[in-house]
Fold this sequence. Notes:
By secondary structure, the protein is mostly helical. The chain contains 4 helices and no strands. Helix 1 runs parallel beside helix 3 (55-78).
Amino acid sequence: MGYLYLAIAIAGEVVATSSLKASREFTRLGPSVLVIGGYALAFYCMTLALRTMPLGVVYAMWSGLGIALIVAAGAVLYDQIPDAWALVGMGLIVAGVIVIHTMSKMSVH
């Protein structure tokens, strides 16, 4: 269940962060509700994931996958296309998450 909660947490964070720009500094109700609700869901589900998963692993997956998904959302929603170096950097972040998850004794297998 830890991975399911973490996936929901990451999805909530991606929705919330992607909605920040559309909220126009919290002057638009719909996107502002998505920001607040998305972060509330994300942090709640993250605490549930922490019941069975180590903090470092949860945070590495949360941040690494969140970064990659936010960049994808920015490209789709706001036409903010990453350049080659941004893609290389994100690839390294995701590779680090994979190394932690698959090779670290700290990870949950």
